[in-house]
Design goal:
By secondary structure, this protein is of the alpha+beta class. It has helices at 35-40, 46-68, 134-150, 160-169, 175-178, 184-193; strands spanning 18-20, 24-27, 30-34, 71-72, 81-83, 89-91, 98-99. The longest helix has 23 residues, at 46-68. The protein is globular, with a radius of gyration of 16 Å. The two termini are 31 Å apart.
């Protein structure tokens, strides 16, 4: 992918080289599955939550490195985060990648796909007069961590417009209410990442 070539060489950033049926994608040296698939195969308990902490830390470190290189991913969600057999994360999907110094919205329809709609930041809906920024990726991280720790998306609904309306106006159920093993501090952090106001996101 052309966008992937913009990135500095890093073992955590891969472009797929093939697909193995429904079981996952082949990347250089690894066979990976999406974080979403991995979450769906787990049972939320104390042991899982401890493992989720380690995965969350990895995700934050990877995105911090991307931002340090002055790029916005623009589509952070569990479908675009890949996990290998050693529980190591790898970031994928570079077609939304933009230069953080010249942020821009892509065609609105691209953000409304079934894999994106549950993780879209309010400013990506086209209903905020705000350009994307690092805070946009922060919202994606928050929504991804919500799914990681609770097993469900922050907002759901019967149609795209209903889900977008919730992103713009609703507050999600506190994550710790869905997973009592995670604690209120981390739950509060996730809520901060999901703030409607981009400038107030953690």
């Amino acid at each position: 992918l052309d966008n992937a070539k913009m990135l500095p060489l890093n073992g955590r950033f891969f472009t797929p080289i093939g697909k193995d049926g429904e079981s996952g994608l082949y990347y250089p040296f690894f066979q990976l599955q999406s974080l979403d698939q991995w979450i769906e195969s787990q049972q939320i308990d104390r042991v899982y939550t401890r493992k989720a902490f380690a995965i969350a830390k990895q995700l934050i470190q990877i995105i911090a490195q991307l931002h340090k290189s002055k790029y916005l991913h623009g589509a952070i969600n569990p479908h675009h985060v890949l996990i290998d057999n050693n529980d190591q994360l790898h970031l994928s999907e570079w077609t939304f990648l933009t230069d953080a110094r010249k942020p821009r919205l892509l065609e609105k329809e691209r953000y409304l796909s079934s894999g994106m709609i549950h993780y879209i930041a309010p400013e990506q809906t086209g209903r905020y007069n705000v350009k994307p920024g690092y805070y946009t990726d922060m919202y994606g991280i928050g929504a991804t961590l919500y799914k990681l720790f609770t097993g469900v998306v922050p907002f759901d609904g019967n149609d795209s417009m209903g889900i977008i309306y919730k992103h713009l106006t609703f507050e999600p159920v506190a994550a710790f209410e869905r997973n009592p093993f995670m604690g209120k501090a981390l739950s509060g952090l996730i809520s901060g990442l999901l703030n409607k106001d981009p400038q107030k996101r953690l």
